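Lecture notes, continued. The same structure-token format from the folding unit now serves as the input rather than the output. Read the line below as a description of shape only.
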């Protein structure tokens, strides 16, 4: 391909590499942290009903999702008084990746940002695309976040911090009290908490957005709400921060969320029972699998997410990844410093995890 017409920026990009979506055969797919359960019946019904309206443009404000999300948080966190959320505290995007992308022109442009050396690998990709310089904050030896480093230890020229909680790909979570300490210690810095995996065992900070003007949360419907295929994500923050993202969104594309996404996401936020049932199943499957992997000699980081980040002791991680792939089981391997001895394994159904453990035993000759 000729690069004659590419901008210098485009020619220099190193794009994000998503986990593979193979087409050659049927795999047990434990590589992209999708939910193993289908969307709820209420969500399917909402999509079917909305299909008849596809002739018409969607609501550019995605009001139905914003209202349903605010109600979910008010109810789940029992928020009272000024802590309560309204639709004005919610922004809706085409997946939380897009929400994260909007944060760069809205808040980061012209500043320097910071994030962990081991975290979601899309952050540096967006930083390059939007030409925002960044600093890496090293995780501790055990791949946990050094909270003290974030409390008073951040350089003054950092305008915003991206904090993934629970972190990906480690699965480790900070307590809400630790997040609040970071917020209080950095009133001049925007603290973005990426809560893509929070529903699998960590505490959301959504109840604190009206108390901290420097807090912005992103959340996705791709993981705990089974909608990776529909592309819906949100930001939760003070009304003024949300208004800022809206101004940027409306300067780019009025309709980032389509009609099916709006109908599905709103219905998913309303179906609390299915949400709670499926996340509890995933948490219990995770606990079982974590124990089984430890019995097989793996070093497993305690996970608050829907994946396990585990280092085998008797075989190289890269080798185990390939052997599992040959056997029809896909997991994720990152050939990167500090984490190339581990595999990230999405928690599937009990049956899928039993098949994984059987195959690992087989490979290890146990
Ligand atoms: N944040 C993290 C930490 C993720 O792992 C992902 C999924 N790759 C996302 C955000 C984006 O998810 P989505 O765009 O599907 O909402």
């Amino acid at each position: 391909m000729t690069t004659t017409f590419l901008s210098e920026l485009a020619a220099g990009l190193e794009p994000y590499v998503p986990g593979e979506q193979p087409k050659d055969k049927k795999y047990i797919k434990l590589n992209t942290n999708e939910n193993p359960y289908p969307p709820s019946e209420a969500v399917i019904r909402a999509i079917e009903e909305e299909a008849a309206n596809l002739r018409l443009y969607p609501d550019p404000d995605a009001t139905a999702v914003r209202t349903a999300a605010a109600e979910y948080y008010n109810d789940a966190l029992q928020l009272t008084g000024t802590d309560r959320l309204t639709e004005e505290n919610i922004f809706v995007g085409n997946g939380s990746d897009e929400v994260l992308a909007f944060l760069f022109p809205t808040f980061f442009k012209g500043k320097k940002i910071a994030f962990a050396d081991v975290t979601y690998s899309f952050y540096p990709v967006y930083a390059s695309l939007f030409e925002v310089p960044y600093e890496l904050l090293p995780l501790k030896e055990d791949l946990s976040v050094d909270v003290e480093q974030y409390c008073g230890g951040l350089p003054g020229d950092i305008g915003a911090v991206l904090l993934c909680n629970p972190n990906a790909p480690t699965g480790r979570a900070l307590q809400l009290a630790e997040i609040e300490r970071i917020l209080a210690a950095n009133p001049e810095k925007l603290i973005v908490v990426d809560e893509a995996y929070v529903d699998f065992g960590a505490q959301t900070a959504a109840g604190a957005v009206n108390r901290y003007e420097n807090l912005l949360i992103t959340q996705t419907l791709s993981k705990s709400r089974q909608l990776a295929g529909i592309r819906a994500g949100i930001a939760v923050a003070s009304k003024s921060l949300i208004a800022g993202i809206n101004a940027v969104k409306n300067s780019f594309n009025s309709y980032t969320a389509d009609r099916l996404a709006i109908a599905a996401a709103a219905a998913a936020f309303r179906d609390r029972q299915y949400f709670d049932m499926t996340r509890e199943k995933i948490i219990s499957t995770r606990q079982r699998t974590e124990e089984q992997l430890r019995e097989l000699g793996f070093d497993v980081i305690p996970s608050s997410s829907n994946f396990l980040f585990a280092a085998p002791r008797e075989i190289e991680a890269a080798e185990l990844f390939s052997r599992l792939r040959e056997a029809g089981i896909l997991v994720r391997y990152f050939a990167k410093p500090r984490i190339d001895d581990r595999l990230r394994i999405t928690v599937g159904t009990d049956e899928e995890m039993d098949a994984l453990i059987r195959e690992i035993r087989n490979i290890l000759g146990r």
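Point for the exam: The chain has twelve helices and twelve strands.
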